[in-house]
Amino acid sequence: MHCPFCRHPDSRVVDSRTSDDGATIRRRRQCPECGRRFSTAETASLSVLKRSGVSEPFSRAKVISGVRKACQGRPVTDDQLAMLAQRVEEDIRSSGQAEIDAHDVGLAILQPLQELDLVAYMRFASVYQSFDSLVDFEAAITRLREESGDGSSDRSAAGADAESEAGEPAGNPNV
Ligand SMILES: [Zn+2]
Protein backbone atom coordinates (compact mmCIF):
# COMPACT_ATOMS: atom_id res chain seq x y z
CA MET A 1 0.00 0.00 0.00
CA HIS A 2 1.60 3.25 -1.21
CA CYS A 3 1.54 6.27 1.06
CA PRO A 4 -1.08 8.59 -0.53
CA PHE A 5 1.01 11.65 0.41
CA CYS A 6 4.56 10.85 -0.64
CA ARG A 7 4.05 7.59 -2.60
CA HIS A 8 6.45 5.72 -0.33
CA PRO A 9 5.83 2.02 -1.20
CA ASP A 10 5.47 0.83 2.38
CA SER A 11 3.33 1.61 5.42
CA ARG A 12 2.98 0.39 8.98
CA VAL A 13 -0.36 -0.64 10.56
CA VAL A 14 -0.87 1.29 13.81
CA ASP A 15 -4.46 0.28 14.56
CA SER A 16 -6.94 -2.22 13.18
CA ARG A 17 -10.60 -2.66 13.98
CA THR A 18 -13.52 -4.67 12.67
CA SER A 19 -16.82 -2.95 11.87
CA ASP A 20 -19.86 -3.84 13.98
CA ASP A 21 -21.26 -6.24 11.39
CA GLY A 22 -17.87 -7.91 10.98
CA ALA A 23 -17.85 -7.36 7.23
CA THR A 24 -15.14 -4.68 7.09
CA ILE A 25 -11.72 -4.26 8.67
CA ARG A 26 -10.45 -0.68 9.02
CA ARG A 27 -6.74 -0.14 9.40
CA ARG A 28 -4.97 3.01 10.49
CA ARG A 29 -1.57 3.17 8.79
CA GLN A 30 1.49 5.33 9.16
CA CYS A 31 4.04 6.09 6.49
CA PRO A 32 7.61 5.43 7.76
CA GLU A 33 8.94 7.99 5.28
CA CYS A 34 6.82 11.12 5.87
CA GLY A 35 5.17 10.03 9.12
CA ARG A 36 1.66 10.90 8.00
CA ARG A 37 -1.29 8.64 8.79
CA PHE A 38 -4.09 7.35 6.59
CA SER A 39 -6.87 4.72 6.75
CA THR A 40 -7.70 1.73 4.62
CA ALA A 41 -10.81 -0.46 4.63
CA GLU A 42 -10.79 -4.11 3.68
CA THR A 43 -13.96 -5.94 2.61
CA ALA A 44 -14.20 -9.36 1.00
CA SER A 45 -15.90 -8.81 -2.32
CA LEU A 46 -19.17 -10.61 -2.89
CA SER A 47 -21.25 -9.90 -5.94
CA VAL A 48 -24.47 -11.28 -7.28
CA LEU A 49 -24.84 -12.19 -10.93
CA LYS A 50 -28.36 -11.39 -12.07
CA ARG A 51 -30.21 -13.22 -14.82
CA SER A 52 -29.73 -10.17 -17.05
CA GLY A 53 -25.98 -10.76 -16.88
CA VAL A 54 -25.43 -7.67 -14.71
CA SER A 55 -23.38 -8.15 -11.57
CA GLU A 56 -24.06 -6.08 -8.44
CA PRO A 57 -22.75 -6.09 -4.86
CA PHE A 58 -24.50 -8.49 -2.51
CA SER A 59 -27.09 -6.60 -0.46
CA ARG A 60 -28.71 -7.77 2.76
CA ALA A 61 -31.40 -5.14 2.20
CA LYS A 62 -32.42 -6.87 -1.02
CA VAL A 63 -32.60 -10.23 0.71
CA ILE A 64 -34.81 -8.66 3.38
CA SER A 65 -37.15 -6.97 0.90
CA GLY A 66 -37.56 -10.21 -1.05
CA VAL A 67 -38.31 -12.24 2.07
CA ARG A 68 -40.54 -9.53 3.57
CA LYS A 69 -43.02 -9.95 0.72
CA ALA A 70 -43.33 -13.67 1.47
CA CYS A 71 -43.81 -12.83 5.19
CA GLN A 72 -46.82 -10.53 4.73
CA GLY A 73 -49.37 -11.19 7.44
CA ARG A 74 -47.00 -13.58 9.23
CA PRO A 75 -45.63 -13.06 12.78
CA VAL A 76 -42.09 -12.28 11.61
CA THR A 77 -40.24 -9.29 13.10
CA ASP A 78 -37.73 -6.95 11.46
CA ASP A 79 -35.06 -8.32 13.80
CA GLN A 80 -35.75 -11.83 12.58
CA LEU A 81 -35.51 -10.67 8.97
CA ALA A 82 -32.20 -8.95 9.72
CA MET A 83 -30.83 -12.10 11.34
CA LEU A 84 -31.99 -14.19 8.40
CA ALA A 85 -30.22 -11.88 5.95
CA GLN A 86 -27.06 -12.00 8.06
CA ARG A 87 -27.16 -15.79 8.07
CA VAL A 88 -27.69 -15.90 4.30
CA GLU A 89 -24.68 -13.62 3.79
CA GLU A 90 -22.52 -15.71 6.15
CA ASP A 91 -23.55 -18.93 4.41
CA ILE A 92 -22.71 -17.52 1.00
CA ARG A 93 -19.41 -16.00 2.15
CA SER A 94 -18.39 -19.28 3.79
CA SER A 95 -18.72 -20.97 0.40
CA GLY A 96 -15.68 -18.91 -0.62
CA GLN A 97 -17.16 -17.71 -3.91
CA ALA A 98 -16.60 -14.07 -4.86
CA GLU A 99 -19.57 -14.09 -7.18
CA ILE A 100 -22.83 -15.98 -6.80
CA ASP A 101 -25.79 -16.48 -9.08
CA ALA A 102 -28.92 -14.56 -8.03
CA HIS A 103 -30.85 -17.84 -8.14
CA ASP A 104 -28.41 -19.36 -5.62
CA VAL A 105 -29.06 -16.44 -3.27
CA GLY A 106 -32.73 -17.44 -3.38
CA LEU A 107 -31.80 -21.03 -2.60
CA ALA A 108 -29.61 -19.91 0.31
CA ILE A 109 -32.65 -18.12 1.77
CA LEU A 110 -34.81 -21.26 1.80
CA GLN A 111 -33.28 -23.11 4.75
CA PRO A 112 -33.27 -20.22 7.27
CA LEU A 113 -36.73 -19.16 6.09
CA GLN A 114 -38.02 -22.68 6.63
CA GLU A 115 -36.83 -22.45 10.24
CA LEU A 116 -38.42 -19.02 10.65
CA ASP A 117 -41.92 -19.47 9.23
CA LEU A 118 -43.29 -22.38 7.23
CA VAL A 119 -46.04 -20.43 5.46
CA ALA A 120 -43.59 -17.74 4.33
CA TYR A 121 -41.21 -20.51 3.29
CA MET A 122 -43.88 -22.14 1.10
CA ARG A 123 -44.68 -18.82 -0.57
CA PHE A 124 -41.02 -18.11 -1.22
CA ALA A 125 -40.18 -21.65 -2.35
CA SER A 126 -43.10 -21.74 -4.76
CA VAL A 127 -41.55 -18.79 -6.59
CA TYR A 128 -37.87 -19.76 -6.37
CA GLN A 129 -38.32 -23.41 -7.15
CA SER A 130 -40.95 -22.64 -9.78
CA PHE A 131 -43.75 -24.76 -8.36
CA ASP A 132 -46.21 -25.08 -11.18
CA SER A 133 -48.65 -27.66 -9.95
CA LEU A 134 -50.26 -28.98 -6.78
CA VAL A 135 -47.92 -31.96 -7.01
CA ASP A 136 -44.97 -29.66 -6.32
CA PHE A 137 -46.73 -28.20 -3.27
CA GLU A 138 -47.64 -31.67 -2.07
CA ALA A 139 -44.06 -32.88 -2.40
CA ALA A 140 -42.77 -29.84 -0.48
CA ILE A 141 -45.36 -30.25 2.28
CA THR A 142 -44.60 -33.97 2.60
CA ARG A 143 -40.89 -33.17 2.95
CA LEU A 144 -41.61 -30.47 5.56
CA ARG A 145 -43.78 -32.91 7.55
CA GLU A 146 -41.00 -35.50 7.50
CA GLU A 147 -38.34 -32.96 8.48
CA SER A 148 -40.33 -31.36 11.29
CA GLY A 149 -41.18 -34.81 12.68
CA ASP A 150 -40.81 -34.62 16.47
CA GLY A 151 -37.75 -32.32 16.65
CA SER A 152 -39.79 -29.19 16.01
CA SER A 153 -39.83 -28.06 19.65
CA ASP A 154 -36.16 -27.00 19.75
CA ARG A 155 -36.46 -24.70 16.74
CA SER A 156 -36.14 -21.58 18.92
CA ALA A 157 -32.73 -22.72 20.16
CA ALA A 158 -31.26 -22.50 16.66
CA GLY A 159 -31.44 -18.70 16.58
CA ALA A 160 -29.63 -18.33 19.89
CA ASP A 161 -26.54 -19.98 18.42
CA ALA A 162 -26.31 -17.59 15.50
CA GLU A 163 -23.57 -15.49 17.11
CA SER A 164 -21.23 -18.33 18.05
CA GLU A 165 -18.41 -19.29 15.75
CA ALA A 166 -19.25 -21.85 13.10
CA GLY A 167 -18.30 -25.35 14.12
CA GLU A 168 -17.73 -24.39 17.74
CA PRO A 169 -19.76 -26.54 20.10
CA ALA A 170 -22.10 -24.31 22.11
CA GLY A 171 -21.56 -24.32 25.83
CA ASN A 172 -18.22 -26.14 25.73
CA PRO A 173 -16.85 -25.74 29.29
CA ASN A 174 -13.23 -25.72 28.03
CA VAL A 175 -13.65 -22.49 26.04
ZN1 LIG B 1 4.52 9.14 3.14
TrEMBL record:
Pfam families: ATP-cone, Zn_ribbon_NrdR. One of its GO terms (biological process) is negative regulation of DNA-templated transcription. Residues 46-136 form the ATP-cone domain. Residues 150-175 have a biased composition (Low complexity). Binds 1 zinc ion. The keyword Magnesium does not apply. Coiled coil: none annotated. Keywords: ATP-binding, DNA-binding, Metal-binding, Nucleotide-binding, Repressor, Transcription, Transcription regulation, Zinc, Zinc-finger. A zinc finger (unnamed) spans 3-34. It comes from the Bacteria. Signal peptide: none annotated. The keyword ATP-binding applies. Residues 145-175 are annotated as: Disordered. Its cofactor is Zn(2+). PANTHER family: TRANSCRIPTIONAL REPRESSOR NRDR. Negatively regulates transcription of bacterial ribonucleotide reductase nrd genes and operons by binding to NrdR-boxes. This is Transcriptional repressor NrdR. It comes from Brachybacterium muris UCD-AY4. The lineage of its organism: Bacteria, Bacillati, Actinomycetota, Actinomycetes, Micrococcales.
